[in-house]
Design a protein that fits this description.
This protein is an alpha/beta fold. The chain contains ten helices and 14 strands. The strands form three sheets. The protein has a six-stranded mixed β-sheet, with helices on both faces. Bound molecules: adenosine-5'-triphosphate. Adenosine-5'-triphosphate binds next to strand 2 and helix 1.
């Protein structure tokens, strides 16, 4: 049994609406980031992998097992959905034990597994607390613990850091990195910072299409020499906004400092070191251009 996820020619429809277009990805052990705006198709892809949605066509294997073998796939995959909630009135430990029973774990094994997992996600001291009394970050960590009950080879987490405060977010990311030492962890997010801090390999998905698949370093390299800074007067800003793809700006008195992506250096601008947010914006921007050029039959 190999340790990778192979996706070939995947298409997915909701009725007539196509949500995924010819997705091809090979995902290896470690942390894999799936980055895309709201509505890009991330959840659809995650749910398809978790066998909660059926694909229209294409091939998927998870650690060598075809996705059609849903029973086996569910043994291999742990899944933390975007909207995760569980037994709010139960105590943390009771809820975990109950889920462990449902997962078929028995007696001593169950007790040991629940203890180990609560320790791993740093919730042991909250065993007696009701689930509804946990903070957002604690709830997410409990979600991870339940997803790991069967000791899956793959952990899929959909938008886990939305709504967490910065400290909880960092703690959660570190937990995922630890888990990724011996598993495939797929982290889906629209928050560029989550990817930057944790993932080496990523895919960017936009309107159902994978528009980038590679390492974070490659992505940054591709943006090299195409990110610029410039200081202008506030009065010029509306025109600059029309002309440029601005990735960030801040105002200082009458001046505005902007950071933008462009194909070539323009007067008054200085080239700067790209960050992953710039590179992501550049990719979204150029994929739009690609589509438009494609429609016109032009060469890219
Ligand atoms: N049950 C559904 N019926 C019809 N269309 C759907 C359904 N679920 C999702 N879609 C559409 O499919 C596309 C992809 O949605 P999906 O939820 O996978 O995106 P996402 O990247 O996960 O975004 P978000 O972070 O907002 O969940 C969107 O255009 C969405 O409106």
């Amino acid at each position: 049994m190999n340790n990778s996820i192979e996706i070939k020619g995947l298409n997915k429809f909701y009725g007539k609406k196509q949500a995924l277009f010819d997705v091809n990805l090979s995902i290896q052990q470690g942390m894999f980031g799936l980055l895309g705006r709201n509505g890009a198709g991330k959840t659809t892809l995650m749910k398809t992998l978790a066998t909660l949605l059926q694909k229209k066509n294409g091939e998927i294997t998870v650690c060598g097992v075809p996705i059609e073998n849903a029973k086996e796939i569910r043994r291999i995959i742990g899944y933390l959905p975007q909207e995760f909630s569980m037994y709010p009135s139960m105590k943390v430990g009771e809820a975990m034990e109950y889920l462990a029973i449902l997962s078929g774990l028995s007696g001593a094994e169950r007790e040991e597994r629940v203890d180990t997992l609560l320790k791993k996600v740093n919730l042991t001291e909250h065993w007696d607390k009701k689930v509804k009394a946990l903070s957002g970050g604690m709830k997410r960590r409990l979600g991870i613990a339940q997803a790991l009950l069967n000791n899956p080879k793959v952990l899929i987490v959909d938008e886990p850091t939305a709504g967490l405060d910065p400290e909880e977010r960092v703690r959660f990311r570190n937990l995922l990195s630890e888990i990724a030492e011996d598993k495939i962890v797929i982290l889906s997010t629209h928050i560029v910072g989550d990817i930057e801090a944790t993932c080496e390999d990523i895919a960017i998905i936009n309107e159902g299409r994978v528009i980038y698949n590679g390492t974070v370093d490659q992505l940054l390299q591709e943006a090299e020499g195409r990110v610029f800074t410039m200081t202008a007067s506030k009065r010029e800003l509306p025109e600059l906004k029309r002309q440029l793809s601005i990735t960030s700006m801040h105002t200082q008195g009458n001046k505005v400092h902007i950071r933008f992506i462009a194909e070539a250096l323009m007067q008054g601008a200085k080239v700067c070191e790209p960050n992953i947010e710039d590179a992501y914006m550049l990719y979204l921007h150029t994929s739009g251009v690609r589509e438009i050029l494609g429609e016109m039959g032009g060469e890219w």
